[in-house]
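Narrative of accomplishments. A recurring question from our advisory board has been how the design workflow behaves on a single, concrete structure rather than in aggregate. To address it, we present the structure tokens for one chain from the evaluation set, followed by the sequence designed for it. No filtering or post-editing was applied between the two.
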């Protein structure tokens, strides 16, 4: 049995910034948990056991919490424990009934108040414990972002990323030690001109501005083909948009991208919503490496790459909400494994360009139903001194819902 844990949010203003209720909880706790910085902010209490968070956190927490049964346990957290804090981790382990949270004013709320930004006018992105490459998914002309920094090096990392993404013209404000006596604020009209150090506790405010409109990458499906590094094994823009329309990504869902090629479908699936997940299955080593690079460049570095050949490589993967098969549909067992793996209500989309694949998809259509579509795309191209239509290979698409 694990104890009830009270989580007390504490700001950069420390002990003096806490209300009497949270102060009393801290003073009367048998056990006080928190980071070393948080524990140093509160007065010593005779006989009180104090424990810094274990490392690694998620692996060490169950054993630590299990040893505290029958004790009055309080955990300290930065600001609002549910804003990129320990709150969600503890609820995940103990359940909502095992955790009582007393939030302090979050650094996000403090930053917005300093800037005069209304809550609906910006998006919050955490870089705490995350690959900063996720920023590429969020930038868009005119968009406001509040970034939760990992440490004092984050603003410089962000400035370099923005420059590389073609957003060096973005304005950037670094707000440090919010609500403390040492609070700072520095404004930089252009991110690519940022220099200097930042306090360890800081929030970065961005108003995105693009140097060249051509570099903007919307999160809607249908990125241009040249947004991806590829060797020709790429689901092209127009048919990719059709596939994603039928895959119908919803927040938090999981996609299998089987025969991923350049990874374009899985990447666009994850760009559709920040909580979406995808597994790209690719047998070709060089292409699998390319998927990793594309995912990082387009702001979804958490995309998982499984290097192997379907259907064997699908064994043990978590059940998907949707599956896209861009290659290998004629391999024995691939379609059967994908159909069987789908969650109730899950979606499957399969593309083929050969007669053999078309025959296989027609059999699946007869057996499972769904929709068969033939996609023919032509692009204007030069014919001597004139312009004519250049057809791409027609793509046969089978889609179905479990």
């Amino acid at each position: 049995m694990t104890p009830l844990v009270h989580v007390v949010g504490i700001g950069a203003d420390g002990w003096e910034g806490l209300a009497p209720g949270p102060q009393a909880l801290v003073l009367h706790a048998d056990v006080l948990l928190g980071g070393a910085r948080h524990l140093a902010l509160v007065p010593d209490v005779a006989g009180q056991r104090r424990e810094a968070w274990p490392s690694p956190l998620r692996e060490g927490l169950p054993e630590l919490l299990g040893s505290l049964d029958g004790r009055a346990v309080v955990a300290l957290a930065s600001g609002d424990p549910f804003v990129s804090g320990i709150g969600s981790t503890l609820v995940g382990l103990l359940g909502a009934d095992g955790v009582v949270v007393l939030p302090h004013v979050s650094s996000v709320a403090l930053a917005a108040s300093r800037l005069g930004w209304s809550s609906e006018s910006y998006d919050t992105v955490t870089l705490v414990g995350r690959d900063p490459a996720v920023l590429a998914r969020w930038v868009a002309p005119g968009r406001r972002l509040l970034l939760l920094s990992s440490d004092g090096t984050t603003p410089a990392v962000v400035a370099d990323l923005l420059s590389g993404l073609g957003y060096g013209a973005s304005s950037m404000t670094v707000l440090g030690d919010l609500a403390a006596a040492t609070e700072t604020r520095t404004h930089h009209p252009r991110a690519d001109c940022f220099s200097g150090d930042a306090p360890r506790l800081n929030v970065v405010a961005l108003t995105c501005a693009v140097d060249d409109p051509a570099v903007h990458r919307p999160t809607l499906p249908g990125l241009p083909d040249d947004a991806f590094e590829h060797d020709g094994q790429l689901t092209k823009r127009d048919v990719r948009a059709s596939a994603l329309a039928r895959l119908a990504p919803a927040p938090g869902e999981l996609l299998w991208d089987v025969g991923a090629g350049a990874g374009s479908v899985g990447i666009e699936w994850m760009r559709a919503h920040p909580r979406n997940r995808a597994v790209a299955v690719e047998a070709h080593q060089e292409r699998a490496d390319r998927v990793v690079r594309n995912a990082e460049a387009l702001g979804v570095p958490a995309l998982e790459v499984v290097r192997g050949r379907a259907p064997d490589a699908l064994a043990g993967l978590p059940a998907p909400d949707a599956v896209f098969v861009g290659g290998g549909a004629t391999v024995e067992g691939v379609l059967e494994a994908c159909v069987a793996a789908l969650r109730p209500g899950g979606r499957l989309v399969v593309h083929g360009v050969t007669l053999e694949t078309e025959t296989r998809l027609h059999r699946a259509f007869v057996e499972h139903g769904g929709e068969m579509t033939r996609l023919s795309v032509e692009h204007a191209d030069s014919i001597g001194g004139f312009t004519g239509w250049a057809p791409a290979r027609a793509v046969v698409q089978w889609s179905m819902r479990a």
